[in-house]
Amino acid sequence: MTAREFSIEIIQKLTSAGYTAYWAGGCVRDLLLGKEPNDFDVATSAPPEQVRDLFGKRRTLAVGESFGVIIVLGPKTAGQIEVATFRTEGEYLDGRRPESVDFCSPEEDSKRRDFTINGMFYDPIAERVHDFVGGEKDLNRKLVRAIGVPQDRMEEDKLRLLRAVRFTALLCFELEPATADAVKIMASQIVVVSAERISQELRKMLAHPQRASAMRLCEELDLLAAILPEVVDATIQVSLENWEQSLQVLDRLDVASFEMGMAVLLSDVRLDSVREICIRLKLSNQEKESIMWLVQHQGCLDQFPEWTLAEQKKLVVQPHFEQLFEIEQLRAIVQEKSGQPYQFIKSFRSERTAEELCPPELLNGRTLIELGHRPGPKFQTWLKAVREAQLNEEISTQEEAIALIKNL
Ligand code: ATP
Ligand code: MG
């Protein structure tokens, strides 16, 4: 059973029990756009306790019961479905979360949602859209428009500032002018949103094919200056041309990971600032290490053909080398530089097996001890020299390695 089928089953059961139940929000938007939704959220008139009773305590999770949200657990293939009671939200005191919720009609529920295209319901049984906010019209006009007074809605929840940019860019829509004005006026306040949620938005934007237009829009609406002031500073100090080139690289990336996107964005930022940014955005250690490695090695491939064999081999076996190569090759294209080093690297790689690039060691600490040497700091120097010579294809046997150490 798919998530879609399971969510219809849930809606049927709620309807048979006398409640109203619809698909709600993002999935309605995606269905009307002819896209496969990420998840099928259900909204219903049934209060949370009734939802739990209907599906059984063991098959539900009361993760957000006080907000009217119950998770219904489905078969493995269907996953879990969020069933939320139609609700209005009380005042937002912390700029992120409502203080209280009240259960209400579908119409009132739609008014608390962020953008008109996200504010619709769909009844999959009657096959009918319930649109109280003009969402269908805006979908057809390709417009992202806040529901209600834009600035008030952004004040309530500042995450909407970034969501506005994400939906606009990723759907290739326009941002309705009054909504855009509100985003620009409020942009500096995005920092009250937790780092985790900001980076979650950045991940979604940078891992998407429309990542370049998302970043351009962030820049135009002053959100970039609020989230990544270092990038804006570097653009001013280094050059505007580099920023334009970075956007072009972002645009051309074939398979983009979040890390690659960040590395391109941060290409003119000093490495210690890059580290600080990753920490500030609470990225994972793995993300931080990849981003820093990519930024650190940007620009180095142009000299690759002049390096020693050992240097070349050591770089190409690095875990993020492929990503670096893709970024750098694109940068060379947008800067109209020679593609010769990249052709060289391509043949260099295709002419060698993985074992040739990273052959088994000829010697290690244990073999040195077996040969009667006393462990000490010299071991490291010797082993390094042996490895270097081996990768440079000057030696290829243990005997040659031992002879080399004797000469040291
Ligand atoms: P996607 O899942 O593709 O990122 P989505 O629209 O489904 O987009 P979700 O975060 O899954 O976004 O939220 C589901 C729905 O809940 C939205 O479509 C919107 O109606 C509502 N919603 C989510 N976040 C907010 C918010 N910050 N303010 C107001 N409404 C919101
Ligand atoms: Mg969703």
Key structural traits:
408 residues, alpha+beta, Beta Polymerase, domain 2, two-stranded antiparallel ribbon, 54% helix, binds adenosine-5'-triphosphate, binds magnesium ion
Task: Describe the overall structure.
The protein contains 23 helices and eleven strands. The protein is of the alpha+beta class and 408 residues long. Strands 3-4-5-2-1-8-9 form a seven-stranded mixed sheet. The protein is elongated and about 90 Å long. Adenosine-5'-triphosphate (ATP) binds at residues 25-26, 38, 41, 113-114, 118-119, 157, 159-160. Adenosine-5'-triphosphate binds at residues 25-26, 38, 41, 113-114, 118-119, 157, 159-160.
Gross CATH architecture of one domain: 2-Layer Sandwich
CATH class of one domain reads Alpha Beta
The total of beta strands comes to 11
Spatial extent as radius of gyration: 28 Å
- What would you give as the CATH superfamily of one domain? Beta Polymerase, domain 2
- Tally of separate helices: 23
CATH-defined topology of one domain: Beta Polymerase, domain 2
- Compute the average pLDDT: 95
> What ligands does this structure carry?
adenosine-5'-triphosphate, magnesium ion
What is the makeup of the main sheet?
7 strands, mixed
Question: Roughly what percent helix?
Answer: 40-55%
Q: In terms of structural class, how would the helical and strand content be classed? A: alpha+beta
List unreliable stretches of 5+ residues.
none
Residues in β-strands, percent: 5-15%
The CA-CA distance between the termini, in Å, is 69 Å
State the strand order across the main sheet. Answer: 3-4-5-2-1-8-9
